[in-house]
Amino acid sequence: MGTFKIEGGHRLQGEIHPQGAKNEALQILCTVLLTPEKVTITNIPDIIDVNKLITLLGNLGVKMQKNGPGSITFQADEVNVGYLETEAFKKEGGSLRGSIMIVGPLLARFGKGYIPKPGGDKIGRRRLDTHFEGFINLGAQFRYNREDHFYGVERTGRLKGTYMLLDEASVTGTANIVMAAVLAEGTTTIYNAACEPYLQQLCKMLNSMGAQITGVGSNLLTIEGVESLGGCTHRILPDMIEIGSWIGLAAMTRSEITIKNVSWENLGVIPTVFRKLGITLERRGDDIYIPEHKDGYEVKTDIDGSILTIADAPWPGFTPDLLSIVLVVATQAKGDVLIHQKMFESRLFFVDKLIDMGAKIILCDPHRAVVIGHNFKSQLKATTMSSPDIRAGISLLIAALSAKGTSTIQNIEQIDRGYERIDERLRAIGAHIVRV
What we know:
- By secondary structure, the protein is α+β, with helices and mostly antiparallel strands.
- It contains 14 helices and 23 strands.
- It has helices at residues 22-28, 48-59, 87-93, 103-110, 129-137, 171-181, 197-208, 240-252, 270-276, 323-330, 351-356, 390-402, 413-416, 422-427, and strands at 3-7, 13-16, 38-42, 63-68, 71-75, 112-116, 141-145, 150-154, 163-165, 187-191, 212-214, 220-224, 232-235, 256-259, 282-284, 287-290, 308-311, 336-340, 360-365, 368-372, 384-386, 406-410, 432-435.
- The strands form six sheets. It has a four-stranded mixed beta sheet with strand order 21-22-1-23. The chain has a four-stranded mixed beta sheet with strand order 2-14-16-15, with helices on one face.
- A hairpin with a 5-residue loop joins strand 11 and strand 12.
- Helix 1 (22-28) packs parallel to helix 7 (197-208) and helix 6 runs parallel beside helix 7 (197-208).
- The chain is globular, with a radius of gyration of 22 Å.
- Residues 119-126 have low confidence and may be disordered.
């Protein structure tokens, strides 16, 4: 397991370019299975989770041509569906949660899709029911091997379009069902669909391949099934979670940073939430400029003077992936904040590490934490810690960069799963970080 050594307390300065969006890439890459024609995808992030999915596609027989950094042309004209029933696939597919999204395309085009119980972050239960209920609604037969934790769906004949009301606005669930429905016979209507920018990107890409999806950007999608799809070229958006991470980093280290080409129209309420924490950020073209916060940042209370509450919600609400960042940033704010993590029950359990560093945090229950800000009057102190998941890992890294002394973060593969060459990019703006 790799380790980061971080000497904190240094001001950073310069420009940083966000990588391609991890969560979009995991959806977009699976669409290549829907057509035998060539699909070129650009701005692919070079991170562990995405590279695992690319390897999985290669093992399924998808041909690939690397065109340059972050650009690959895929062609799925000779897919080996038999690979799905091998021991190698059970091991490989189980190590990546994003592998669940190959099931919809495989079911639609080849008549069957299997997946071992997917891995990923240990952030509580992450149901797969929405995915499989959607496939069953389209006419697929479900099978589950309880001993091997192996899921499968199969169809006889073509999938049939139908109306469905999702029990939750699952992003990956919506993506999977959409990818199955585009090749179904007739009309599929999905209500309570996820509508985040990455899902919109998926729908736009599918439409450019010949799909007929309307309602993109809303929670009501209508899909007219087509016989087949063609190739296309698609560019992945910048990663909004990484952009939020850099905003938090700049505030905590009181650094002057410009985040380049952020696709402002796809950031939703992210800038607003950071402004509620008192952080100054300016829109300069399509960049975000964060000045040096010499005097810190003061939390804005609610209109009636009550404590500010920041909670996650399905899009266009605040993404749960940034609550860990907000929590860390709040430790040095002037004022108090209640963080309410509604969507996952184990994502706040990393706060004990921040408390060890001197942060004032009261963990009320698995979903809520009250943060009492230091207003930079007391610097966090360095410590040794381990990264439990991607977002907690980057939060601990931000805390370490602001702390007094040298911190050690172990299990950094968790951070590498979601952040591309993060140590190199941080050193480029003045961070004292070494990968051991």
